[in-house]
Description:
Rossmann fold
Amino acid sequence: MDVNYRKPKTENRKPSFPHPRLDRQLLIPGWNQDALERAAVAVAGDDDLTASLYALAAAALGVNRLVVLGPRLDPRLIHMASRINPLLDLTFIQGFYTHPALEDIFQSCRVMVDFSLYGLANKQLLNAASKTGRPLVRAFGYEQDGQAGVKIFTYMKGREWEELADLVARPQLPGRPFRDATLALIAAALALEDTKNLILRRRVSRTLTHYRRPALPEKIGDPEILLVGAGALGNFVGLALAEAGFHRLTFMDPEKVEVTNLNRQVFFYDALGQGKAETLSARLNESFGARARFQAASFGTDSDISSFDAVFDCVDNFETRVLLSEACRRHGKILISGGTHVEAGQMVVYDPVRGGAAPGELLGLQEIVGRRRQEASKGGESCLYQPEPSVIMTNQVIAGFMADAYRRLLAGQEVDNIFYDAGRDRRI
């Protein structure tokens, strides 16, 4: 189904204060939400999934003005974007970037983003960036010569780069787009990270970010998967797995949706007060073809994982992550563990076939939990709850790597742990 969505302009309805759903990102030092809300962003591409994932995440971040040029958008993701951000003004122009005159439709935009997979568009957009002085974020997933991956680089006038040709796709004209759910998730998140930095006048990476791995079979069975945690990581891991063809998903989470979850937990746009696991499973079933179930419970020492082929750790507390590590080691289950902070995160894999340290051991979580318990017994202030800053991009990046890691394990590939830092030139 194609989308031709254009919402009326919303400047007159713009509130004089940020929406409460943005509170967690407003805690970030130096954050300027007003700049994000006022900036217009241009998006060009021929892959509807990557462009739509970008639009969804940008809407959740509070970017209100998007101009998208492409053959189509994903109606499910655009519906979610419009519900999570009622101020979203999205202008969609159906077509391909094939002529320099199209530069005019991006004239009012602060940043340009290029997801297209044909050289004609790549060259014209690079030329437009050089001519107008507008920065261009070039991000894309690819598959060629038996390899697949993601590349991203931000080009600005005067910022010459000796490997600029790496950003230009081999096919010169539009063709069948490469569609890979996990790589699309990573590419969209990395592009939004650089978009945010450009709008807030923060530093972007000076080098090409490149994630590569061997190409994967299109379909790799349908295992039974347990996802512990239905928050930001759980939302995006569930979406990536469902889009990649994994449908037998079970979400475990006792929490209910709060308003401050909504800047990154994209499935919960109208579910305040409802159970996270129940809502997430229902929406993946309704719109993404999953056969998901839910358990409104916490993972504990008596939780049964015997029926699952793999476990995804999407929780945000060390105590539960230690329990998951111990349970998966004991039962010989694959465990893929993700953790995120504002600009950094990690994806750690435990595969019982290959052995090695479980995530709890590798990351030293037992020692951290032990220290916390000692402090709690002494009445230490560090045990008091304090909300931490959080944004959507890091969660989206790590979720993409988590889902991709599982696909690689099923294909018999070696998988390395990934440590991501958005603030460094070598981000991955």
